[in-house]
């Protein structure tokens, strides 16, 4: 049976005996309130129909543009074939696209909605270039992490549950194009040791990209991939150290990502030289663990502020 096949269409309400419903039945002038009400209801219907027509026209244009956007994929794959085989992600390009949206955005549509729509588009387009799966540990904040996964990678990308971050990173290492999404939550084990092996998986992005005091899918997390062919260097470089977080807390240009008593994963601004930094801070040599584009705070964005006060 077709969906909704049993549904009976609602019949319009027709009042009996002329519909004496108070205000509308009083005769006050040349045009009765009834006639006026009917006229304004007709006007409302007409303007609603006009607005819906405009929306349908815009939707058709957006749909045509998405189809046109996807027609570029084959050429994109060919253009990228000069590079190494592997994942098609270009995190620096994705970051610059998001910054461009933030710069040109206006109106009542929350900027985070734009981010969400384009994340679905970008993830699907990347997937069409080189299919991949997303490995997600289930041992810490799994439902919040799933929200982040779906917000940033949409519903076309298969999501695979892993026991913990180590298992998720091992699955990435064993694949060609897969990703892992690991929450930045302090724990007992320094899971990031799996990011310091030569030519092994590395951090490629930090989420959320648009930061705000009040946004959906806001669990801090990092995206991990095998080394990419992205020519643009990251703005923050990640390092692992055996030192605890207290050794780094007060230092400038440092962003602590996750910590255990047995070590810290942190990001260092690229204008800081890591060797000089480690020597000055009295730290043992740092182990590179990847990098990411600087997230963007959108709390000053007018449309975002509006959505926050609602
Ligand atoms: C299209 C590209 O590849 C991926 C898909 C993107 C997109 O659909 O806009 C953007 C960046 C990449 O992660 C690209 O490199 O430009």
Content-based structural category = alpha/beta
At the third CATH level, what is the topology name of the domain at 85-233? D-Maltodextrin-Binding Protein, domain 2
Q: Which CATH architecture of the domain at 85-233 would you pick?
A: 3-Layer(aba) Sandwich
Assign an overall shape: elongated
- How many extended strands? 11
User: Strand order within the widest sheet?
Assistant: 2-1-3-6-4
The first-level CATH class of the domain at 85-233 is given as Alpha Beta
What is the radius of gyration?
Answer: 27 Å
Major beta sheet summary: 5 strands, mixed
Q: Spans with pLDDT under 50 lasting ≥5 residues?
A: 1-26, 305-310
The whole-number mean of residue pLDDT values reads 86
Query: What's the number of helices?
Result: 8
- How much of the sequence lies in strands comes to 15-25%
* Cα-to-Cα separation, first versus last residue: 42 Å
Helix content, binned percent: 25-40%
What compounds are bound to the protein?
A: ligand ISJ
Q: How do the helices and strands follow one another from N- to C-terminus? A: HHHHEHEHEEEEEEEHEEH
EC number: 5.4.99.5
Organism: Rhodobium orientis
InterPro entries: Chorismate_II_sf, CM_dom_sf, CM_II_prokaryot
Domain Chorismate mutase: 42-133
